[in-house]
Amino acid sequence: MSQSDFQPTASWANLKLRAEALQRLRVFFDARGFVEVETPILSHDTVIDRHLDPLRVTLFADPQAPTVGPTLYLQTSPEFGMKRLLAAGDAKAIYQITKVFRGAETGELHNPEFTMLEWYRVGDDYEAGMNLLAELAGEMFRAPRVERLTFHQAFERYASMDLSSATMSDVELDIVLTSRVQPQLGQSQPTILYDYPADQAALAQVRVAENIAERFELFVRGVELANGYHELLDPASLRARNIQTNQLRQADGKDPLPEQSRLLAAMEHGLPNCAGCALGVDRLVMLLAGASSIRDVIAFPIERA
Question: Which domains, from first to last, does the chain contain?
Answer without folding.
Answer: 1-123+275-305 (3.30.930.10)
